Amino acid sequence: MREADAACEFRYQLNVEDAYTIRDFDLVVFADAMSVGEDGVALTEIGPSATIAFTTHEMSPASVLALCHELYGRAPRAYTLAIRGFEWDMGEGLSERGRANLVRAADILRRFLDEQ
Amino acid sequence: MGRKITIEPVTRVEGHGKVTIHLDDAGKVTQSRFHIVEFRGFERFIQGRPYWEVPVLVERLCGICPVSHHLAAAKATDIIAGVGPGELTPTAEKMRRLMHYGQMFQSHALHFFHLASPDLLFGADADPAIRNVIGVALWHKDLAVQGVLMRKFGQEIIKATAGKKIHGTGAIPGGINKNLSPEERDAFLKAPDPLNADTMVAWAQAAVDFFRDFHKKNIALIDGFAAFPSHHLSLVRKDGALDFYHGALRAVDAAGKKVLDDVDYQDYLKYIGEDVRSWSYMKFPYLRALGKADGWYRVGPLARLNTCDFIPTPLAQKEFEIYKAYTGGKPNNMSLHTHWARLIELLHAGEVVRDLLHDKDLQGTALVKKGRKAREGVGLLEAPRGTLFHHYRINADDQITMANLIVSTTHNNEPMNRAVNWVAMNVLDGKKDITEGMLNRVEIAIRAYDPCLSCATHALGRMPLAIELYDARGALLDRKER
What's the predicted TM-score (pTM) here? Predict the structure, then answer.
């Protein structure tokens, strides 16, 4: 995949307008920190799901896909890139293990996109 | 055996909340409460930080309404920096207003189209699987599309003025750190349909028309549901106009008599007290002149349209006149009319954004002023959910030594409890079977206030969600946890 074919956006949290944002893309990767689960990085394909989280503070990637599908008649192919983190108290910088996972995640993403 | 019914979490509000309803052995309601189970300590941990960090620190209270905190903190630290209200440069004042009205626009659109409309469109007894934003998209696609794009438009205004959509850095003590370039302005004024300011105003008008039509077909529900008398408080401009960004404090009683008027909010502590109760982390503000028991009040769209004398944009003013005529010019005390008031405010915000975008002062280059530093400052504005207070003190080293935040949802703590109690008494009382629709009516009552529970209690980290069932003697019968 050429760099010109990709766009990267930062979100504090996903919300309803992200259904509009992703509507014309063929592939979307939702990357985020993960606070539970095994150490490491997980790249997982996901599909639309109409299960709404109980508050709109957190619209899940799957529900954004579902809303996109309902509003615009299609939803892109989508993956989550979950990056395990370890220290969540207030402070600055990443933990060593978190930083190592971030580096690993960037490598996995780069190789994944090169395969598309 | 009496039962305690708990709804937890309350769906489609921001944050986490719990409702408990106590029934006696005959199934009659003895008590109902809206509990806030989160706790946050922003007022403590910003102490020691330099005051100029406050506008970007405290907005992290919330990911849904950070602009309100950003601007209220900026207004408070303006005073500390020696720049009083009305003393900002024209560019700074108008950039902040554009930021604020942009966030009012997107917040009100998000709330109505995606939080409240599922209940109105499908009814409180509808299948929960469709009574959400996906269901609105499925069955009322045009409405859902407009809601998404109105939210997006407002978020882009915020990005252009604050630097980022969430947790921006645009407002600083004494001013602003960027203006609006001609290119940024034209992106909003000249964008092809639908993402331009004129279309946003047209859609906001259509939203008001939609609600008025819905109201006509559902008068008993909209008028009767959780209607109860109360005082109302908001900021009002000097001439009595609705103004979200600045004004003086005004409070009216349920009949419209002014109980507070033209109060400089720097003196708020003389007029507003905060009560604490054992069963909630959220405080209970009250008007000191009326005491703790009787001094509670509503804030937000319903309150604002009860306290102001007029709306200074033509389309919203026309709707305001229709709205006021419905209650014969008297204050409106019907909880679900908050949605009507919110949509009139949506229209007003759209008109202000459109008109401000034509103001050449936004391209000005004088961004910041400085004055004689003070040790204390109070910043007040009308956030989407109601009046927001930020109050700070500093020491000789410019470090924060005291912070007091009274957020909109906290002001509405007692009203939300009253609304829950209304539903408990009128819908749940004496019933043998509790349906999902009955429980959803409790949530409808709370959702009318568009509460932001994270703001109200400064939650940190993950909160356990528990459902607890007690008998009339307080013995735990059952517990479920998410």
Answer: 0.90
